[in-house]
Amino acid sequence: MKLQSLLLVLCIVVCGSDGLNVKTKNDFTATPPMGWLQWERYRCILDCETYPDDCIRDSLFMRQGKRLHDDGYAAAGYVHVNIDDCWSEMERDGNGTLVADKKRFPNGLKSLADYMHNLGLKLGIYTDMGTKTCAGYPAAIFHMQKDTQTFADWGIDMIKLDGCNSCTDLFKAGHEAFKFYINQTGREIYYSCEWPTYLPEDKPKPYADIAKVCDMWRNYQDVQDSWSSVMNIINYNGDHQDEMIPYIKPGAFNDPDMLLIGDYSLSEDQSKTQFAIWSILAAPLMISANLETMKDWQKAILLNEEIIAVDQDSLGKMGRRVYKNSNQQTWVKPLADGGMAVAIMSTREDIPVFMSVDFKLLNITGSWNARDLYALKDLGSYEGSFKAMVNPSGVVMVKLTKASRVISADFV
Question: Which InterPro entries match (predicted)?
């Protein structure tokens, strides 16, 4: 098994990936995935006696999956329940097969996947391209074929491949090999990569290669439960948008990391801002919070159908930051129906202020109807510019639709 995986990696390095059927077009990857992910909120909590409700074990994922199903999240599109690091035994079994921790997952992951599937949900898993995962658990190098087939046999629907304890010089070949083995299983499995995250931030990243292999990819530091972390990610994506935008399309999405809405740090306005900008970016919408303690206003943000529709728009376009000064950023995303979503974001932290968008920045002329996607109301028609009061660290998000002159039936 080790020799087979190594030979495939070397073959891809020397011969290229042509003919290996590395990336195929699939309907299930056409829009960014939505769901729930353990890591930001629960990390690697293993003490189930001290933290029975927070430790990484099967009941945590079953409870959160049940909430997705019962509280309307799944109906809105949040169908993935993803396990991150720290789920396995520290050693493979005698056959070299990964084994879920026997105390924390006593029935194994096939049983957990069946539970999710019975709820109409999907189960995701985590592994790493290196010798060990980031938390020191068994990883995939030299075990790619066995691990991908094991995951498929368990009924896994998404695999996150991390990049700790590995060699970045082999990232291209390694990620291609892993995707090849996913395809060989015959199961539809969403492939989430960390490839660009581990590459230098001061150099262009090989998004053309990444987009050919990965269904989605992280490109920056892990999000932390703070507004400053969210802002750092927003600014990074805006500063590097010209590198990324040409390669974002259905089946190839940039992942700015998890949603913090429902966790500890973000205010209501900041939560609205993260959700708005993530939808403009065509980002995966992966909640990392306790769904059992979600406040009504947090749930209302996450279940906003009109903003979810922006994120899930069939064009699959990543939006663009078209304006930035010390107080304001303006982000725009083209939509399949010919309209556009516009997010006016305040970076002030003191007072609400009026902020405007010049239609010249949007490359549009004429009259456009504006609908406020948080207030869920039509605002009227505008020409030349749009102006709104924006709260500190907040956002006003509108959908602009070209206004058409209505002709009376008497003149038809």
Answer: Aldolase_TIM, GH, Glyco_hydro_27, Glyco_hydro_27/36_CS, Glyco_hydro_b, Melibiase_C
**What one-letter code names the amino acid at 10?**
L
Question: What is the C-alpha separation between 88 and 179, in angstroms, rounded?
Answer: 22
Q: What type of residue is 168?
A: T
**Helices marked H in 240-267:** 241-244
Tell me the pLDDT tens digit for each residue of 81-136. Answer: 999 999 999 999 999 999 999 999 999 999 999 999 999 999 999 999 999 999 99
Quickly state the pLDDT bin for 8 (edges 50, 70, 90): low
Give pLDDT, residue 2: 58
220 dihedral zone (left: phi>0; alpha: psi -120 to 50; beta): beta
3-state helix, strand and coil shares in percent for the chain, rounded to the nearest 5: 35, 20, 40
- According to DSSP, the β-strands at 395-402 and 367-372 are antiparallel
Of 71, 101, 153, 222, catalytic: 222
H-only helix segments in 205-263: 207-213, 227-239, 241-244
Name the strand (E) or helix (H) holding 330: strand 328-334
Specify the 3-state DSSP secondary structure of 263. coil
Whether 313 is catalytic is no
CA 365/CA 172 separation, integer angstroms: 44
Q: Which of 85, 128, 157, 162 is catalytic?
A: 162
Instruction: Give CA–CA dist 38/194, Å, rounded.
Output: 16
Domains located in the chain, CATH noted: 28-312 (3.20.20.70), 320-402 (2.60.40.1180)
Stated as kind and residue range, the H or E segment containing 204 is none
**162 belongs to the catalytic site:** yes
- Reading the block at residue 36, the tokens are 């729930």
Asked if residue 186 has pLDDT above 80, the reply is yes
- Residue 274 structure tokens: 């993260």
